[in-house]
Automatic annotation (TrEMBL):
Protein name: Frag1/DRAM/Sfk1 family protein
Transmembrane segments: 12-32, 71-99, 111-137, 149-171, 192-212, 224-249
Keyword Transmembrane: yes
Keyword Membrane listed: yes
Organism: Psychromarinibacter halotolerans
Keywords noted in UniProt: Membrane, Transmembrane, Transmembrane helix
Domain of life, source organism: Bacteria
Length: 265
């Protein structure tokens, strides 16, 4: 009998898809965060007369072409990378579907559901990113606001769906163990997603409440509410991105993990 040889039962494309998704997710996380905070900072520095009246939103900051033009390029590029990044995460998880189906039929159905709906939500988010960055105030108010609504609704839906899937996976030991054995799932990262995802959903609800409240007659509270509103906006986006970034741990495991089994021949 010859010596046993190590083999990897996972599909051959899994390693490079996971690695490319990891790189794209990291690029988008760094770039989008850098752009949203630097855009507001640049507008505040360049337009003290406006800031003296009220703090700027990201949308208002983009009305300055010196800020908006660069923002449009980098956010558009990030949007182009985020869709394949998220699709790569889904493909990585879905590679374990045959094993999950055998261990947990309910878990397999959930995995199929997120494999269908999450890319659609991410596509909506990416389209919104392109629209809000390419169409800016004051010439394209309606187009910009549509893109902004599309981004926030789609991205909040993405995080909520991902959070529910993380909760369901954590409560399904057979599914979690099977995906971990397949080398595409890191339990520690999933536990972190439970906290970050929950915080992100709560922030989204708070941001929606502030969005509604800022249009009301709040009297002396109006400046404070508006300040909290504009400050919550970039934090919401950062938490959306952080939730996605936590999948890098799973992607790294799939890309660089050891071979999963040994077979004698």
């Amino acid at each position: 009998m010859s010596r046993p040889i190590a083999y990897d039962p996972r599909p051959g494309w899994l390693g490079w898809v996971s690695l490319l998704s990891l790189l794209a997710m990291t690029f988008a996380f760094v770039t989008v965060n850098l752009q949203i905070y630097s855009a507001r900072a640049a507008f505040i520095a360049s337009h003290p007369e406006y800031v003296a009246k009220q703090p700027p939103t990201i949308s208002r900051a983009l009305s300055d072409p010196a800020i908006g033009d660069g923002f449009a390029f980098w956010i558009g590029l990030s949007a182009l990378l985020l869709f394949p990044a998220v699709s790569g995460v889904i493909a990585t998880f879905a590679s374990a579907l045959p094993a999950v189906r055998a261990a947990s039929p309910g878990g397999a159905r959930r995995l199929v559901a997120v494999s269908v709906f999450l890319p659609l939500l991410q596509l909506g988010s990416c389209i919104g990113m392109v629209m809000l960055s390419q169409y800016t105030f004051p010439d394209y108010n309606d187009e910009h606001m549509f893109g902004s609504y599309l981004f926030f609704i789609s991205q909040a839906g993405m995080v909520l769906a991902g959070l529910l899937f993380s909760i369901a996976t954590a409560r399904d030991p057979a599914m979690a163990a099977t995906m971990a054995e397949a080398g595409v799932y890191a339990p520690g990262a999933n536990r972190a997603r439970l906290w970050v995802g929950t915080t992100s959903v709560l922030l989204s609800l708070g941001y929606l409440g502030l969005f509604i409240a800022k249009g009301l007659d709040l009297g002396a509270w109006e400046p404070f509410v508006y300040l909290v509103y504009v400050s919550t906006e970039p934090v919401c986006i950062s938490f959306y991105l952080l939730f996605g970034l936590l999948y890098n741990v799973d992607l790294a495991r799939a890309a660089f993990g050891r071979r999963a089994a040994v077979q004698g021949v």
